[in-house]
Amino acid sequence: MANHNGDIAKDNLDSAIRLCENWINNASPELKRIIRHVSKKPVKKGDKKVIKLRKSAK
Questions:
Q1: For residue 50, what are the CA distances in angstroms to 24, 27, 37?
Q2: What is the DSSP string of the chain?
Q3: Which residues, other chains included, contact 48 with Cβ-Cβ below 8 Å and sequence gap of 6+?
Q4: What is the C-alpha end-to-end distance of the chain, expressed in Å?
Q5: Cβ distance 49 to 21 under 8 Å?
Q6: Structural domain harbouring 43
Q7: pLDDT in tens, the chain (58 residues)
């Protein structure tokens, strides 16, 4: 699941981020790990919205 969403993020970052934002509230540790995986590459590019999302998933 994390890899599929990571692939979606490559082509359609906004959709992937919206999905993760919907998941972040009441997310289990496993789901937070998926969110971190999805946001891994966009964070390296310095996307501020993704950085904030990734910090929320810790």
A1: 12, 17, 11
A2: -HHHHHHHHHH-HHHHHHHHHHHHTT--HHHHHHHHHHTHHHHHTT-HHHHHHHHHT-
A3: none
A4: 18
A5: no
A6: 2-56
A7: 667 777 777 788 888 889 889 999 889 999 999 899 888 888 888 888 889 989 999 8
Rg, the chain, Cα only: 10
For residues 30 and 12, give the distance between their C-alpha atoms in angstroms, rounded to a whole number. Answer: 23
**Number of structural domains in the chain:** 1
37 contacts 6 by C-beta, under 8 angstroms: yes
Instruction: Take residue 14 and report the two structure tokens written for it.
Output: 């906004």
* Cα–Cα nearest to 7, from 30, 37, 28: 37
